[in-house]
Structure formats: C-alpha cells, structure tokens
Amino acid sequence: MTVTHKIFIHVPIFISVVSILTSCAHKSDVIQGNSAKNMSLPMELKLKGETGRIELLDNCSQSVTKTFMLGDLRHKRIENVSFKVKTITKETLANSDIKQEVQTVFKEGGVNLHEMAYPEFGESIEMILTPNCQVTKAGRYPKNSLFFLPPLPLKKGEVKIGDSWQMENSWQSENGHLTLTAKIQTEFKSLKTCGVNQCAELIVTGEVHMPEIVEKKNDFSHKLNGRFLFDPNRGLLVWSEFGSVEHLNSRGALVEVRSVLRSHLLEPQGYHIASREEPSCPLESTEE
Questions:
Q1: pTM
Q2: Residue 265 and residue 251: Cα distance in Å, rounded?
Q3: Across the strands, what pairs with 200?
Q4: How large is the average pLDDT for residues 252-259?
C-alpha cells in the first residue's frame, strides 16, 4: 500500500480542482481462495511491507466546474486525467515503517497531479509510512503539505464490521495562505469478495473546512464521500472511488465543482474476476 492511494484528500481545494466519490452498491460473488479462509474478526487494517513488491495502480479523475451568475449558468469546464502509478516497496524499517518509491509512469490529461498528492509524470518520490498510514517522509515536500496527509483513514488496533471512527487532519494550501482541515468518518461496512481474495469494504464521508472567517465570507462548503476495498492480509488498497462536491458563493457568483477519482489495482494480480463487480477506469461521463 502506498501514499498514492490517498483517498479523501485527493481533492484540490477552492482554487483548484476537486474530486467527487460516489459509492456504488454491487453484488458480491462467492468468496473463494486461500485469503478468504484466513479471515477472522475483529482484525487489524494496516499497511504491510513486502520488500520488492511492485504495485501498479490505474487512476482516472474528472472534475466539472460550473459558474452561475444570478442563477444562470455562465461557464462550464470539464477536466479529465488518466494516470498509472507504480510503487516499489524498498524495505521495512526496524520500527516497522515502510519505505517505498512512488512513480507516475503514464499520464494522459493536463491536470496537475500534485493537486491530488501524486507525483507528476516522470517524477519519483521516496515515501515512508507507518503501518497505520501516517506519512513520515514524502520526498522533499514539507510536513504541512498535502503529501503528508494519511493516504487512508485506517484506525489503529482491531476493528469489526459495524465499527466507525473519525479522523481530522490539516494542511496548508499550495500558496501557503490557507489552513485546510479534513474531518472524516469511516465505517467498516462489510467483508466483500475481491477476485480470489476477501477485502474489507469501508465507507467514507466527510467535509473540508477553511478558517471560519474565510468560510463564512465565501459561503464555502466542501462535502466528501467514498468507498474503498482493502485487503488486510497483504495490506493493499484494491479499489476505490472517492469524490467531492464543492460550492463557493462570492459577489453574486456561485461556483460548483464536482469531481470523482477512481483507482483500481492492476498489479499484484488476482483481485478481479471475469464478472467484475467494481467499475474500473476509464470513467464514463454523463457530462456533455
């Protein structure tokens, strides 16, 4: 599991693009494979380092920005990007932290990937993460940047189906002028078939806030929601879909940004079956 599997924080805030995740309910297939036989509850959901393991994650994102004046639509912009991220686990350190090299090896589209806490095409970032998904190093990026937000909201200790927990994390906007805070609630929804494995299905909801005085002045709101599948046996994010809806109302102009970011694991293989129940990339847009 790597920092590039960031979920709720893959949202460029306010002056940038934003992502919207939509949860989908899908029918599960019969559980099969050795991983399923070894599942027991309660369980720990944490990252696990397998030295030399290569992960290839396929990602696709779309954001739709609409500007209204006095209720009339005046402008609409649609931005799409598809990209693949390779993560190599270099080693597990003495304190159990995991050192990884993260690279974007393919990109199609003009969106700045740094706004989603991913390396740009051709860039390599050395990451160090704790088993509970806290980032202790992100290349040369400062500790108050988006890159240091936890990639996944994994609770420390054992959890069972029906448990929920809250997390709150803050960072500085790219220009350093604003402190942004994400308040996230995660629910352990179920155990779900993912290929020949069994994964924990987690549901995420939350909000992003600016400083109160700025938020009120601009009538700002930013809602998050999403769903992801996590293999607890190997400590891997298998599939996710996260999104946001953002509104900003200032001087008679209403700006609405709706975004979605979907990711699914290509390597290691074995997490998808012929009758794949989770949608994969590319996104099918209903926007004209």
A1: 0.84
A2: 44
A3: 191, 230
A4: 93
